[in-house]
Design goal:
334 residues; two-stranded antiparallel ribbon; 2 strands; binds Phenylacetyl coenzyme A
Length: 334
């Protein structure tokens, strides 16, 4: 199965021989990796390493920004003022995560404008999970518990990613995601202990978000073209399946505290492999979502495009202000 589609062609690695490599630079890069040290923006790095990072960090940044939409859908309908303010703070946190990540990607030489253009033109990827609809308030709980939970599981190892600006951004992101996960769990706990209808709503949300949250970890290892190289470069520390299995082990215990169930009878701990196993996932559905044909892809991109157009005056005003400041500074120096 090839996941490269016309809608999201991804970035192609430049062959190493096309680069002119300064003396000793490749050896220094490899030594930093061998020592498990950080590569910093000032360091020489292979072009393919740079492109892989831009690919992963920009898709991560876009995910945070598009990921604001499913939850923003419930801000005006939150059941209380307290829930509304918590949800608004969470959605704002996601915007902040997007900004840290765009900044980390910019240190690799790709301007944020270019990444944004690719996103709104439908050329860039963002996480599959944000193409599913949020149908009830309980979805705010399921997103916090399952989606932020999966994000943490995937992102804690990224705090040790070999590229310094990415790893450091992830430290702060993970701290905030862990608060997000707890607020989602608490929403579900309250619903699970509420009326029969509320309990039913919580179970329905878990039933709908379970499989998509497992697919967030990416395709199975034998179908993941980037994993091997990314692991050799100490960007990814664990494979997609390893992290998925770890996540299943976490939620299978947590769901018991909710007194609810996961929609998967096949979950078991495999003693021989020492890992959690889950039932089959619909990878065709995943492929469809990646190709732009998920339930909400068109809506998410249209909304992002609209927000970009609506924000044009802010960018123009900021640029005019910066030009004015620069001119004033120039006059002062003269
Ligand atoms: N969705 O070879 P691999 C969040 C693509 S943030 C879409 O395995 P890789 C916070 C992949 O890009 C969620 N595309 O790729 C939040 C590649 O395509 P390409 C985002 C996917 O990079 C919570 C192709 O498939 N988190 O949730 C997905 O080694 C609540 C082949 O795959 C991150 O981005 C997918 N699920 O591993 C916000 C974490 N999976 O680029 C708001 C950082 C795979 O060759 C509310 N990223 N693809 O055209 C990563 O850890 C990795 O990039 C993976 C994919 C694990 C996602």
């Amino acid at each position: 199965m090839s996941l490269h589609t016309d809608a999201s062609p991804g970035l192609q690695a430049v062959p190493a021989e096309a680069e002119s490599v300064p003396d000793g630079a490749q050896a220094h890069f490899e030594q930093l990796l061998a020592e498990d040290s950080r590569i910093e923006p000032r360091d020489w790095m292979p072009e393919a390493y740079r492109k892989t990072l831009v690919r992963q960090i920009s898709q991560h940044a876009h995910s945070e920004i598009i990921g604001m939409q499913p939850e923003a859908n419930w801000i005006t309908r939150a059941p209380s003022l307290k829930r509304k303010s918590i949800l608004m703070a969470k959605v704002q946190d996601e915007a902040g995560h997007g900004l840290y990540l765009y900044s980390a990607a910019e240190t690799l030489g790709t301007p944020r404008e270019k990444m944004t253009e690719d996103l709104i033109a439908g050329k860039a990827r963002y996480s599959s999970i944000f193409n599913y609809p949020t149908l009830s308030w309980a979805d705010m709980g399921a997103i916090g518990w399952l989606v932020d939970g999966a994000a943490i599981c995937n992102q804690v190892p990224l705090c040790r990613a070999s590229y310094g600006p990415y790893g450091r951004a992830m430290v702060r992101v993970c701290k905030e995601e862990s608060f997000h996960q707890r607020q989602g769990f608490e929403i579900l706990l309250e619903l699970a202990n509420g009326t029969g209808a509320q309990r039913g709503m919580a179970q329905d949300a878990i039933n709908r978000w379970y499989a998509p949250s497992l697919m967030m970890f990416g395709p199975p290892d034998d179908d993941s073209p980037n994993s091997k190289q990314s692991m050799a470069w100490n960007i990814k520390r664990f494979s997609n399946d390893e992290l998925r299995s770890r996540f299943v082990g976490m939620i299978v215990e947590q769901v018991k505290v909710l007194g609810l169930t996961l929609p998967d009878d096949s979950i078991r701990f495999n003693e021989d492999k020492q890992q959690w196993e889950h039932g089959p996932l619909d990878w065709n559905e995943f492929k469809e979502v990646l190709a732009g044909r998920g339930p909400c892809n068109a809506q998410r991109l249209a909304r992002r495009r609209e927000a970009h157009e609506d924000g044009a005056w802010v960018r123009e005003a900021a640029a005019a202000y910066a030009a004015k400041q620069a001119a004033a500074q120039k006059t002062e120096v003269a």
